[in-house]
Amino acid sequence: MSADTETNTPASPADHWEARYAQSTRVWSGRVNATMAAVVAPLPKGTNGTALDLGCGEGGDAVWLAEHGWQVTAVDISPTAVARGAQGAAQRGVAERITWIAHDLSTWTTEQTFDLITASFFHSTVEFPRTEILRRVVAQVNPGGHLVLVTHVFESEADIPPWASRRDDGTPHMPHMPGPDHDVNELALDPRHWQIVTSEIRTREATGPDGVQTATLKDGVVVATRLN
Ligand SMILES: C[S@@+](CC[C@H](N)C(=O)[O-])C[C@H]1O[C@@H](n2cnc3c(N)ncnc32)[C@H](O)[C@@H]1O
Fold first, then answer.
1. In the predicted model, is pLDDT for residue 14 greater than 90?
2. Is the predicted pLDDT of residue 47 greater than 90, yes or no?
3. Which range of residues forms the domain containing residue 92?
4. 1, 56, 73: residue to mutate for ligand 1 pocket, most atoms within 8 A of CB
5. Pocket of ligand 1 contains residue 88 by CB under 6 Å
6. What DSSP state is assigned to residue 175?
7. Which of the listed residues 6, 40, 70, 146 has the most CB atoms within 10 Å of its CB?
8. How remote is the CA of residue 192 from the centroid of ligand 1, in Å?
9. What residues contact 110, with CB distance under 8 A and at least 6 apart?
10. What pLDDT is recorded for position 224?
């Protein structure tokens, strides 16, 4: 966890993430997350083709969604990340298809409804009411629409890639991330209104930021469809 170096108090989530993005010109690849693309590609767009991307980071998924016909709202707590997303969208010619919002999702509400809500690796090492956020936003999914979650699954330290950030003692910051069934239990979606279509772990080969190290990663995938 990052901290204010003068007072040694933990950084607020907003300060933590803003500092994380500000420390380099790009944190993520800028490309869509492969598992998210594979899961979303066959989904119907519903009446309006509206999508909400939670914790959009630098916008790789949001830009891909826009390029695939969705009208996207992309939200992240870091203004720097959101600005990079907007820049990427302009470069790829989809600026008018994405509304970028820099806001803490723990206090963000909207009247708008969506045919798709996505959250890729919506994780944090600082204070983060993730389940509360997800449970609130699912109320905004239109009937026939979908919630798609893609998560890191670290069932043991062996699942954590060698390039993941570590503490001074060498232990990783995110030692246990239990996976999609846990997410489904936490969300506790009302079965009268929701169907869990997918709750599974997929593996994929990944290359680290140095372009050399490789690892087999586990992605948790949850797809829930709103019935009515
Ligand atoms: C692991 S990153 C994933 C980014 C992006 N979805 C991707 O796959 O590249 C998690 C993201 O969640 C954002 N985030 C963390 N806490 C948040 C909050 N309370 N409200 C909004 N965004 C938040 C962070 O700024 C960060 O961009």
1. yes
2. no
3. 28-187+194-226
4. 56
5. no
6. -
7. 70
8. 30
9. 52, 73, 140
10. 98
